[in-house]
Design brief:
There is one protein chain. It contains 16 helices and 13 strands. By secondary structure, the protein is α/β, with parallel strands linked by helices. It folds into three domains: 1-60 and 419-444, no CATH class; 62-203, Leucine Dehydrogenase, chain A, domain 1 (Rossmann fold, 3-Layer(aba) Sandwich), CATH 3.40.50.10860; 218-364, Rossmann fold (3-Layer(aba) Sandwich), CATH 3.40.50.720. It has a seven-stranded mixed sheet with strand order 10-9-8-7-11-12-13, sandwiched between helices. Strands 1-2-5-4 form a four-stranded mixed sheet. Helix 2 runs parallel beside helix 4 and helix 7 (218-234) crosses helix 8 (250-261). The protein binds glutamic acid (GLU). Glutamic acid (GLU) binds at residues 95-97, 169, 171, 203-204, 345, 370, 373-374, 377.
């Protein structure tokens, strides 16, 4: 088996690994699932991971697809398509969010599920990886319709998930309210004396209903914790640091607000409604309120700029915190940043990664940078299981400890294997899973 060290970003093609042929994968280089598996397999090759673990991780264990009808406010019924992909449970129950978005489809959900397996392993929470979603545009539905969609989706997949088996959480297009509807449906449909254990079927719930303090901001907080740990490597100080943020939803707005409070200058923000700029720094809190009220950055009191101008804005740190594959080679060539911290899952394409590598731009990969959400989800699950509430200091302290350890693990892997940070983070994750498979063996 080859152990040649080739930085992922320099690989010319994503079809190099023999596992692709062995498993009969299609070879579309723009397919997110192929890109994700290729990145994982590259790290597996450097680590010399056993072939059997590679083929297991190259495909999810279960891919669940459901169709379900929901009554709309005007009385007619609409059919929805939902997914739950259970990628791996070697380290614990499947874990990962539910995405409500009009572009949701199977290959993306599979990629996101694989990423969950990697991030849970890297931050050492005892969960595997899963992901789900519904193909729906939440902006087109009333709150009452969203509630019925959530409850009916829960009932469609309820027999295949569970508090010790597969635990969903919020993702793009879902929040604590969706989790409350989901948990309530699950509990009401599984009535028994143990019904309240059902509260652990999802995390990211409202604090009034089994949620954890600090869960809402957790992904953004984890982005900041990781960045702060790694900044000395690139010689940048948080105070006065120039930051731009792509996407100002849960992850982007919390990372922005926390960094702003630490003295960083948020100079540019872009989302699906437009892009804005202020050389002296935007008020991250006022912007979060504006986005919550208006649905995006458009109309905020700042200079409106084009998307290209957003990418060209000179910053120390760029935080992509929107959707996947937004930073291709085109955007990567324009970006004027020293560090890119991936708040979103898989925001950079392999071609974009290659450009960052050539230009010496440091990328803190998603499986490390955005693992704070699932880490606090784990704390929420533990609190539910032990009928306790942690105070915010305990949550923040434990989150920081997990993020800092994961960041150090990644830097150590980079030094040891002489690879880029992305490959190093995957190595940190795969090493742990590989050891679990070595001691467990493969049944029967
Ligand atoms: N959806 C989040 C993620 O992509 C959180 C998942 C969770 O808390 O289970 O990491």
């Amino acid at each position: 088996m080859s152990t040649t060290v080739v930085p992922n970003a320099q690989k010319s093609s994503i079809t190099m690994d023999p596992v692709f042929d062995e498993l009969g994968f299609p070879k579309d280089p723009n397919n997110l699932y192929l890109q994700t598996v290729a990145t994982m397999l590259h790290a597996a090759e450097v680590l010399d991971l056993r072939h059997r673990v590679k083929i297991i991780l190259a495909q999810p264990k279960n891919e669940i697809m459901v169709h379900f009808p929901v009554r709309m406010d005007d009385g007619h019924h609409k059919l929805f398509k939902g997914y739950r992909v259970q990628h791996n449970n070697a380290l614990g129950p499947y874990k990962g969010g539910l995405r409500f978005h009009e572009t949701v489809h199977l290959d993306d959900v599979k990629s996101l599920a694989l990423l969950m397996t990697m991030k849970c392993s890297l931050v050492r929470v005892p969960f595997g990886g899963g992901k789900g979603g519904v193909k729906v545009n939440p902006r087109e539905h009333s709150a009452a319709e969203m509630e019925r969609i959530t409850r009916r989706f829960c009932s469609a997949i309820m027999n295949m998930i569970g508090p010790e088996h597969d635990i969903p959480a919020p993702d793009v297009g879902t929040n604590a309210q969706h989790m409350a509807w989901f948990a309530d449906t699950y509990i009401m449909s599984n009535e028994s004396k143990e019904a309240n254990a059902g509260i652990r079927v999802v995390t990211g719930k409202p604090v009034e209903f089994g949620g954890s303090l600090g869960r809402e901001k957790a992904t953004g907080q984890g982005v900041v914790d990781t960045l702060v740990e790694l900044l000395p490597e690139v010689g940048i100080k948080v105070n006065g640091m120039r930051v731009s943020i792509l996407g100002y939803g849960n992850v982007g707005s919390w990372a922005g607000r926390i960094l702003y409070d630490m003295g960083a200058k948020i100079v540019a923000v872009a989302d699906h409604t437009g892009a804005i700029h202020n050389e002296n720094g935007l008020d991250a809190h006022a912007l979060a309120e504006h986005c919550a009220a208006k649905g995006g950055v458009k109309g905020f009191a700042a200079d409106a700029i084009s998307n290209d101008e957003f990418y060209r804005t000179k910053v120390d740190v760029l935080i992509p915190a929107a959707l996947e594959q937004m930073i291709t080679d085109r955007e990567a060539k324009m970006i004027d940043a020293k560090v890119v911290v991936e708040g979103a899952n898989a925001p950079t394409t392999p071609a974009g990664d290659r450009i960052f590598n050539e230009r010496g731009i440091e990328v803190i990969p998603a499986i490390l940078a955005n693992a704070g959400g699932v880490t606090v989800s784990y704390f929420e699950w533990v609190q539910n299981k032990t009928s306790t509430y942690w105070d915010i200091e305990q949550v923040d302290r434990e989150l920081n400890r997990h993020m800092v350890m994961a960041a150090r693990r990644t830097v150590l892997a980079r030094q040891r294997y002489k690879v880029d940070l992305r490959t190093a983070a995957y190595i940190g994750a795969l090493d742990h899973i590989g050891k679990a498979y070595a001691v467990r063996g493969i049944f029967p």
